[in-house]
Amino acid sequence: MRLRSVPRPSLTTLGLTLLLTGTLALSGCVPGNTKPSPAEISAADGAAALARQGQFDQAAQAYLALAGQYGGHADHYRLLAAESWREEGRIDDAAPTLAQIKRANLQSDDAVRFDLLRADLALRHHDAAAALQLTTQPTVAVPGKLQLRLYELRARAQAATGDHWGAARTRVQMDDSLQGLDRAENRKQILAELTKLDVASLKQRAAAMKPGDRMLSWTNEALSQLGVAVAQPPPSLQQPVGTLLPGANAEVREGYKMPARVALLLPTSGAFAAASDAIREGFFAAYAEDARTHAPRASVRIYDTQGSADGTLKAYQQAASDGAQLVVGPLTRGAVAALFGLSKLPVPVLALNHPDSKQLPASGASEFGLLPETEGAQAADHMIERGLHQAYVVISGDDFAQRAAGAFKAELLARGGEVAGMATLPAGGANYANLIANLHLPASATPAAATPDTSNPASSASTGAIASTAASDAGIFISMRPNQARLLLPQLRIAKIALPVFGSSHVYAGSDNPTADGDLNGVEFCDAPWLFDAQPGLPHHDDIATLLPAARDGSARLFAFGMDAWNLVPYLDWLRDHPGSYLPGASGQLTADQFGRIRRVLIWAKFQNGLARPLGGSLQVDDLPAPSGTAPAPANSSDQPATASSAG
After folding, report:
1. Closest CA relative to residue 357, chosen from 309, 408, 285
2. For residue range 493-524, what is the model confidence (pLDDT) as tens digits?
3. What are phi and psi of 472, to 5 degrees?
4. Can you tell me the distance from the alpha carbon of 266 to that of 120, in angstroms, rounded to the nearest whole number?
5. Which of 130-134, 151-155, 247-251, 333-337 shows the lowest mean pLDDT across its residues?
6. For residue range 335-372, what is the model confidence (pLDDT) as tens digits?
7. pLDDT of res. 184
8. Cα separation values, 575 from 37, 66, 590, Å
9. E-state strands within 305-407
């Protein structure tokens, strides 16, 4: 990324500031001890006006005329002439003028600006070493208004000399000061430089970094783009969004900024229609719940993406034309990738998935999704926190299971653990004896069926509980569907395997079935807190599920996801601007990382007596409004669904 481009009709705000820094100062003073005459000030203002109008060549000629007429400030005006030519994209034309300037004659910021122009010219002539020397002078104090330009030139020089790590680090220093397309382009450059390094080098650097090092997240992002599964340390949850603000009979938190019009982009037909229905109903259930708090609400209009990339782009463009101030959606990974592929997003986006391309969210966009990688990484953290550093991984052949296992392994290794064995369930099979034998799992001297579930006295008489022996630091991680887990667990007991078992949310069908789930007793798994009413301040799950089939069973997680999509709308900016802040959500505690991705922290539950119950009770969150006790139904309006339909 270059902060100033080649010929264009007008300056960016940043370019204008840099170009006119010295000129505007003429209104009060000119470098040196000579007070400018009214005629000199008037001529300088005229040259500056030409620059503001984008007439850079004329501005340069005017500054050269000033240099010839007012010798006491000649080098200052030559510098402004050279900067005008640079803005015109004619840096070579500035070379003769720069050669006439004596650095010792320059005062204030002029000397630094002179060095930056020389560095720019050196890069133009492929003299990266000279440019690097000019942008890394330890004894030169660089004013804040010139720091961005210095960093950009330094990064280009570092890249040209083959110092890709240094170039990336310099651009990371620029990141917080940029916005919009400039920031998006700079971020692409950061990753472009890092991915030029080999995987081994990036891993070595990441391992040597301390938590909180700004380069760590970028290094992990580069490794991810190179196809390497990386650790996902749990987000820092320091405080819930804002604080409760009194007045107007509205339970509104600090940072609450509701747009006037929101567009919801979802497919109404095709393979993802059922998932879309559950998300839409959850979205409007949360919308209706907000009516109880009298908080400001946006008008919402639904746009059909037709389940395709083309349909998504048309829906987005129509929403923008209709005056939407925020777009929520689209839903599929391909649709998100297509939307993020646009050169510019005129309306901010909260995408309901992550693109397959692993590209960073576009400028002005956030990503929110139910990623299996999140569950795998948090399962590894959970095992480490339990003192279990050795894991055996058993998964189904499903895509979600493969992705969860990859993240689990990466996180476990990063936390000092090891994966002792991995196995994938045979497709269509029900006998897992050979798979269990080939894993060489440590067996208990006593049949596991006789081992009580000591974490819950009420279930101590239950047979079939999976428990760990005191001498073992090993556990089993599973990611599979409930019917597969119900087949695997009894066979582990038959093989006298008494290791504790931890799973992704997929092992739970989403509703109580004590008869079928008795075989899962003792299994701990991560899941959305709303399924267990473990998050204060949300409407009760059972109340809503009684009225809306989309809130039941497996689709309940999508329903919770839809609730959170709405609840995130007024807090997106706050979460981005306040690291460590989080929204207590239905699908987890929600926080935003530096790239605009919404990350979830899940709750842990355990099967006891065939029932899944949260560990540790409810999540503790301060000053949240109490649940209403009533189940909201989707609101009726011309821009909202009129009825609630079942999600398959």
Report:
1. 309
2. 999 999 999 999 999 999 999 999 999 999 99
3. -100, 140
4. 48
5. 247-251
6. 999 999 888 899 999 999 998 777 788 778 999 999 99
7. 86
8. 52, 51, 9
9. 326-328, 349-351, 365-368, 390-395
Distance from the first to the final alpha carbon of the chain: 47
Dig out the tokens for 106 from the structure.
Answer: 């320059």
Residue whose C-alpha is closest to residue 610's, from 505, 530, 519:
519
> Which of 5-9, 354-358, 605-609 shows the lowest per-residue confidence on average (mean pLDDT)?
5-9
Q: Which of 365, 1, 360 is nearest to 186 (CA)?
A: 1
d(CA 311, CA 329): 12
Q: CA neighbours within 13 Å on the CB side: how many for 262?
A: 26
Question: For residue 36, what pLDDT is reported?
Answer: 86
| Residue 567 CB coordination number (10 Å) | 22
Nearest to 392 by CA among 277, 476, 301: 476
Sequence-separated (6 or more) residues with CB below 8 Å from residue 39: none
Read off the tokens for 177. Answer: 């000061």
Contact in structure between 255 and 571 (CB atoms under 8 Å): yes
| CA-based radius of gyration for the chain | 30
Query: Cα separation of 65 and 202, whole Å?
Result: 53
Residue 521 to residue 219: CA distance in whole angstroms: 40
Q: What is the pLDDT of residue 247?
A: 62
Residues 6+ apart with CB under 8 A from 129: 157, 161
Give me the half-sphere count of Cα atoms (radius 13 Å) on the Cβ side of residue 122. 22
Global pTM exceeds 0.85: no
Average pLDDT over residues 408-422: 94
Q: Rounded to 5 degrees, what angle do the CA atoms 222, 228, 229 make?
A: 110
Q: How far apart are CA 196 and CA 150, in angstroms?
A: 23
